[in-house]
Amino acid sequence: MIREFLELHGEYHDDKYFKDLTTLKMGGHIRHFVIPNSVDDLKTIIAFLKTNRIQFKVLGNGSNLVCGEGEFPGVIISLKRLCEYRIENDTVYAEAGVLAPALAVTLAKKGYSCLEFASGIPGSIGGLVYMNAGAYKRSMSDVVSEVLVLKDDQLIWLQSDELNFSYRHSIFHDHPRWVVIAARLRLEAKAPEEIEELMADRLRRRRETQPLELPSAGSCFRNPEGGYAWKLIDGIGFRGHRVNDVEVSEKHSNFIVNTGNGTAEDYLNIAYEIQDKVKEQYGIKLVMEVEKFNC
Ligand SMILES: Cc1cc2nc3c(=O)[nH]c(=O)nc-3n(C[C@H](O)[C@H](O)[C@H](O)COP(=O)(O)OP(=O)(O)OC[C@H]3O[C@@H](n4cnc5c(N)ncnc54)[C@H](O)[C@@H]3O)c2cc1C
């Protein structure tokens, strides 16, 4: 019955695995996976799942998730088809499924400064808004003007100051059933060469300092107030620490990477050990930035 309903409103799959849908490349089978055909279909699907008390989760580009090996019995909704964007005077309207690095490059070519800080963040606009993702002292809260939200079966616009943005946090953390449909981001005109140079410089820095050649979910921990998680991890001697196929990167110790057939269990064992040792040695509670799901 679930399958038949989802097939009416999108592209349905029963053979998807989190390991193929996340940048960390870990995680088990997804019983129902759907890519809704349109926003109306998404609305209908979510209303149906809520009425029937069926678990669901919206997936962006899977770049901040650590997913467990067990089967997820509910429905994973991909917003891949919400991938339109258009420039409107001094803003860009971008749907949730648009990938941030691609949009950053397009805007730069057209001479619009906006997403330079996000050009190396491998997420979707929906995921970036959800996380208030950021880098180089800039984050989504600096550029988001408003967000179109599917909230309690209604589409509404929320203004930037209504989104409770703070460090790697937004209102969506407190309302896991709300869905970001699109966002309007503020643009500033600049010479394309200037924007492209800045982006290239930042990508070069990322390549030099982050293990981009191996699967990861980015930084495992948030930086504690006034400090850096990687320094604390180095301080407890965990750079290079390994459990089976999961390793604290030698290149950047706040990245925990999958060197082969790593599992969420191994990943979390390392993360919890780091939390315990950092607490013991420094009295600081490191908070995970990556999200555990189905673990
Ligand atoms: C190599 C690498 C580098 C990274 N660098 C950075 C960095 O510099 N700065 C930074 O902040 N992050 C960084 N990240 C982490 C990650 O890219 C960001 O957290 C990003 O915002 C996640 O977006 P996503 O689309 O992949 O979301 P996902 O991982 O798919 O989902 C994350 C959460 O957002 C929710 N979500 C996704 N889309 C929607 C939507 N439309 N509506 C409601 N909820 C939604 C999901 O349900 C989930 O809870 C990095 C990751 C990697 C792998």
Could you explain how this protein is built, in words?
The chain is an alpha+beta fold and 295 residues long. The chain folds into 3 domains: 2-78, Uridine Diphospho-n-acetylenolpyruvylglucosamine Reductase, domain 2; 85-208, 2-Layer Sandwich (Uridine Diphospho-n-acetylenolpyruvylglucosamine Reductase, domain 3), CATH 3.30.465; 211-293, Uridine Diphospho-n-acetylenolpyruvylglucosamine Reductase, domain 1, CATH 3.90.78.10. Helix content is 29%, strand content 26%. The protein contains 8 helices and 19 strands. It has helices at residues 2-9, 39-51, 100-109, 125-131, 140-143, 192-209, 229-235, 264-282; strands at residues 10-13, 16-17, 29-36, 56-59, 65-67, 72-78, 85-88, 91-95, 112-113, 134-135, 138-139, 144-151, 154-159, 179-186, 188-189, 242-243, 246-248, 256-258, 291-293. The strands form 6 sheets. Strands 1, 2, 3, 4 and 6 form a 5-stranded mixed sheet that branches. A 5-stranded antiparallel sheet has the order 7-8-14-12-13. A 3-stranded antiparallel sheet has the order 16-17-18, covered by helices on one side. The longest helix has 19 residues, at 264-282. It starts with a helix and ends with a strand. The mean pLDDT is 97. Bound molecules: flavin-adenine dinucleotide. Flavin-adenine dinucleotide (FAD) binds at residues 23, 57-65, 79, 96, 121-124, 126-128, 130-131, 133-135, 172, 179-180, 212, 216-218, 291.
